[in-house]
UniProtKB/TrEMBL annotation:
Transmembrane segments: 29-50, 85-103, 124-145, 214-235, 241-262
Keyword presence, Transmembrane helix: yes
Organism: Saccharomonospora glauca K62
Pfam families the UniProt entry points to: Rce1-like
Secretion signal, residue range per the UniProt entry: none
Protein name: CAAX amino terminal protease family
Length: 270
């Protein structure tokens, strides 16, 4: 048991992928990482930081300010639906970009755990991760909000249209797919190729995950850093990405759809 615990705390990098030693190839990988994240979640992190700074300079305390995740994007319902779907396409495209770059480099999807060879085990891991992160995470959010470290986060302010549950579920999938593929499968694989230690890579991944949640406040940042540490380590030890995607999907579906269904019926939600 002690040996297993040590493997989880101080893991050794796997044999695959091989470390890139050629200086030109290493520079290419670094440029690729900068380009990918400068148009995806890295850019989101910078925008999120600016949103938090803007909130901090307002006269109202953070806890009295609100921020919504899924908002209406048009007056006409059909156009709003189409814009919501385009947002999902963008997120899936971000994740697909990372997968394409890995595939082009000779890294198959099965190498990062996006195959369907272990549905039972993947489902069990997903359920455990969703429960293990979701329940404490919700409690942490409410504590951070009440203490004034977080804005009041509204997962959805969409009108009660027939397509709302459908759009919110797809939005949850888009977020889960983009984040877990890019921040875990893609980024950690590339950092392994650059020769970074597993713990250093994990910290970079977790801080990046927290950065694009800064718009929620310091609680949102810290909560997602912890989530990133757990999810990233599970992937490093199991090399299975589907459990992370499914667990993240479950968390967001409960948050998005559940909030939309309950917000007009309870008074303790923001």
């Amino acid at each position: 048991m002690a040996f297993r615990a040590r493997d989880w705390i101080f893991p050794q990098p796997p044999v695959f992928p091989e470390r890139v030693t050629d200086p030109r190839e290493r520079r290419t990988l670094v440029v690729e990482l900068v380009l990918v994240f400068s148009v995806t979640l890295g850019l989101s992190g910078v925008r999120s930081l600016l949103s938090l700074l803007d909130a901090l300079f307002r006269p109202e305390p953070l806890a009295q300010q609100q921020v919504a995740i899924n908002v209406s994007r048009a007056e006409l319902g059909l156009i709003d639906l189409l814009k919501q779907l385009l947002g999902v396409v963008q997120l899936v495209g971000w994740g697909a970009l990372g997968l394409f770059l890995l595939w082009r480099a000779g890294i198959r999807l099965s190498r990062i755990g996006l195959d369907l060879t272990r549905p039972g085990r993947d489902t069990a891991w997903a359920a455990a991760l969703a429960a293990g992160i979701g329940i404490p995470g919700l409690a942490f959010y409410f504590v951070a909000w009440k203490l004034g470290f977080n804005l009041a986060v509204q997962p959805s302010t969409l009108d009660d249209a027939w397509w709302r549950p459908f759009a919110l579920t797809l939005s949850a999938f888009g977020n889960a797919f983009a984040e877990e593929v890019l921040v875990v499968g893609y980024l950690l694989t590339r950092l392994r190729q650059l020769g970074l230690s597993e713990n250093t890579s994990l910290l970079i991944s977790a801080v990046l995950r927290g950065s694009y949640h800064l718009y929620q406040g310091l609680g949102g940042f810290l909560g997602n850093v912890v989530m990133g540490l757990v999810y990233g380590r599970v992937w490093q030890r199991t090399n299975r990405l589907w459990p992370l995607v499914v667990a993240h999907l479950l968390l967001d579906v409960v948050a998005f759809v559940g909030y939309a269904a309950l917000r007009d019926h309870v008074d303790w939600l923001p």
